[in-house]
Design brief:
Endonuclease Iii, domain 2, single chain, mainly alpha, Endonuclease III, domain 1
């Protein structure tokens, strides 16, 4: 089990090293829209929908002028396309009307946008603006609790506790790396503990072994 901050930080660095995740685009607007598309869907579906959408519409100015129905065909792979289309157009209109077409680089302002929660906002800050921000999704929440880094019940509390433990330079990378780690090894159901390089440090694994 992990019982000190130094050990946690070392394992976090190793997760980032072994399970790197690269972002193909760091344009704040495209990061924002892609993250909205990613809600409750698989990465490959998000990528397909985002590629379709951005092949036709490049900016909030363009998307602010369309009817949501106009983009259904592009984002359908992401699922929940009617709801997401409405949000994307609404977000684009707000960006044009209130922010001169720019995505705000402030957490409180991002959270005012429809459909944007802390995870999405923090991804925009980290990936789009290179501002230290820790996005907590289901993978980060599950894995950090399984490893025994923290003991929390909500993603919001997980974010709060992890930012106390991890240095700022790890906040951005740890999200993408834990997503990869969570998909390949530390799965929600039937985690591949025998293949995991961190079993010796894992509270969940050690509790099963005793």
């Amino acid at each position: 089990m992990m019982d000190n901050v130094k050990s946690i930080v070392e394992v976090a660095k190793k997760i980032i090293e072994l399970f790197p995740r690269y972002h193909s685009n760091n344009d704040p607007f495209k990061v924002l829209i892609a993250t909205v598309l990613s809600q409750r869907t698989r990465d490959e579906n998000t990528e397909k929908a985002a590629k379709n959408l951005f092949s036709k519409y490049k900016s909030p100015w363009e998307l602010s002028k369309v009817n949501p129905e106009d983009i259904h065909v592009f984002i359908k792979p992401a699922g929940m396309y009617k709801q997401k289309a409405k949000r994307i157009v609404e977000i684009s209109r707000i960006l044009v009307e209130k922010y001169n077409g720019n995505v705000p680089n402030d957490l409180s302002e991002l959270l005012k946008l429809p459909g944007v929660g802390r995870k999405t906002a923090n991804i925009v800050l980290s990936v789009g603006y290179n501002i230290p921000a820790l996005a907590v999704d289901t993978h980060v929440h599950r894995i950090s609790n399984r490893l025994g880094w923290i003991s929390t019940r909500t993603p919001e509390k997980t974010e709060e506790e992890l930012t106390k433990i991890l240095p700022k330079e790890l906040w951005g990378p740890i999200n993408g790396s834990m997503v990869e780690f969570g998909k390949k090894i530390c799965k929600p159901i039937n985690p591949q503990c025998q293949k995991c390089p961190f079993s010796n440090y894992c509270k969940y694994f050690n509790s099963k072994s005793t």
